[in-house]
Amino acid sequence: MKRFFYLACALITAIMAVAPERASSAERVNFATGGTTGIYYTLGGVIAQTLKDKGLMEITVQSTGASNENLRLVNQGEVPIAFSQNDLAYAAFNGLTPYKAKYENITAIAATHAELIHAVARKGAGISKIEEFRGHRISLGARGSGNEANCRQIFPFFKLTYDDLTPIFLPYGESIDQFKDRQIDGFLFTFPYPHPIMMDITTTHEVEYLPIAGKQADEIIAQYPYFFKADIPAGTYKGQNAAVPTIGVKAMLIADKNTPEDVVYTFTKGLFENLEDIRKGHSKAEEISLKTALEAVTIPLHPGAAKYYREVGLLK
Question: Is residue 106 pLDDT above 70, yes or no?
Fold first, then answer.
């Protein structure tokens, strides 16, 4: 079945390719990313275009529901390469909540960039800290998403459950529309900064930034060590005059363990040996580095990625 999948992808891409003479010598794969307004999709597009321009791979960038859907697609062999949060990859691989079984087919390629918790409230809603989400309409992202998983992890440290508020389960874009219409009082979203959605909101609306710091941050990290302390730097968004202490996770590239070794090797090598060009196309690529490629990687490496890291001395 998986051999048929790769052959089908190759056939479809070959038909659609603008330069068939180049496509004939390049690998062809699907790359699961995220929603079309998110970093996964836009960064994935730049990576795909760069590797195509270099004649290395023909990559079809696939819009998805991001981490949770990507993990499922990779584990089931429906997509060979994808983005995921490191915390969710860890939970999926080990069969931890919210996953009911182990996703034993997922492997790591590389850690890429930081994704920080943005806890935000509408100015005037009477919310200045996460504990004050109580009694309000709060967006937690799409139900079953990686974003919602982070909410479930974090809320108990602020003595909150979903019963204490009115949880709204909507994707980012729909949530923000309701936030602007004052139908939602706040949200807790996990994404890189600066994020287009936050830039959109703060252009026309005043918001309150809610910190995750001190004892609560320490306790969260003690229980979930894939989180780390970070700041949303001052001036990241309009009206944000001070740094906001928070916590974050790492985005990572993952692969089906049955994806051929040479495919993942070519992808990994192409990524790191063409970072200069990729960075020209997307600001978040500035955070991608060979030095940090294995930081916060929470699942086993794919053999193709490991082969490249051994070649460059990152692994023995």
Answer: yes
Whether the predicted pLDDT of 16 surpasses 50: no
10, pLDDT greater than 80: no
Residue 162 lies in a domain: yes
CATH number at residue 200: 3.40.190.10
Q: Which residues contact 201 (CB under 8 A, 6 or more apart)?
A: 120, 176, 179, 180, 207
Our count of domains for the chain comes to 2
In a domain, residue 316? The reply is: no
Radius of gyration of the chain (CA): 20
pLDDT value of residue 26 = 57
At 80-93, the pLDDT tens digits run 999 999 999 999 99
Query: pTM for this structure?
Result: 0.76
The residue from 249, 272, 300 where one domain ends is 249
Structure tokens at 232: 């949303």
Is residue 209 scored above 80 in pLDDT?
yes
